[in-house]
Amino acid sequence: MLGSLGGSSASDIKENGECKSVALIFARGTGEPGNMGFVVGPGLGSQLKTALNNDVMLQGADYTTDFSGGGAKDIIATTQQLKSRCPDTKVVLGGYSQGAMQVHDALGQVGGDVAAAVTFGDPYSSVGFGGGSSLLSGFMGGAGSGAGSGGGSGGSFNAENGKVFCSTGDFICGLMPGGSGGSTSSGSGSGGHLSYSSDGSIPEAVKFIVSKVGGGAA
């Protein structure tokens, strides 16, 4: 459960928790503890549960954050595990920093199974969702087929269901490929790379997710 390791881990899907209307699979940033991290993951998970009356499963991606692509592979496997057991659950992907890159890569294979995706401090913010990029699968270990460009049992990911949150002061945003950093902001914050827990991005992301999953009603 969220909070079992200082508020940094959640494993509802892998521990075969009760099926809920919505499941958030979150990939933390480089060096963050547990599997949810501390900058974005715990706050996003708890606020989404509040907004959807606790009708949410939470799962952190289990990977080493060493840029091997392991996070994307884990997201893909976890999404497939969830959909086989809870076919009616709506999948939401979230990622922060390197975790955002893992989300983009995973969407290349499971995009059709994902109802919404949100990223924070996203190095690939200049790519966005649905554009596709061979750089992603190559750099991240070949886990997917591009920046949310397709895949999944239901077809390609709908780019309108994805949103990037980048502070105008975050130099990591847009860093790859060829971005200038910060100028691709979709959020309202003006802090740095660690500002997302307090700059209003998380509540805005929750509102966006709720608008895409239909309130989480079963």
TrEMBL record:
Active site: S97 (nucleophile), D170, H193 (proton donor/acceptor)
Keywords on record: Disulfide bond, Hydrolase, Secreted, Serine esterase, Signal
Any one of the GO BP annotations: carbohydrate catabolic process
Matches recorded under Gene3D superfamilies: alpha/beta hydrolase
Disulfide bonds: C19-C86, C166-C173
A GO cellular component annotation in the UniProt record: extracellular region
EC class name: hydrolase
GO molecular function, one term: cutinase activity
InterPro entries reported for this sequence: AB_hydrolase_fold (IPR029058), Cutinase/axe (IPR000675), CUTINASE_1 (IPR043580), Cutinase_monf (IPR011150)
Cell compartments where the protein resides: Secreted
Catalytically driven reaction(s): cutin + H2O = cutin monomers
EC number: 3.1.1.74
Family: Belongs to the cutinase family.
Function per UniProt: Catalyzes the hydrolysis of complex carboxylic polyesters found in the cell wall of plants. Degrades cutin, a macromolecule that forms the structure of the plant cuticle.
Protein's recorded name: Cutinase
Natural source organism: Eremomyces bilateralis CBS 781.70
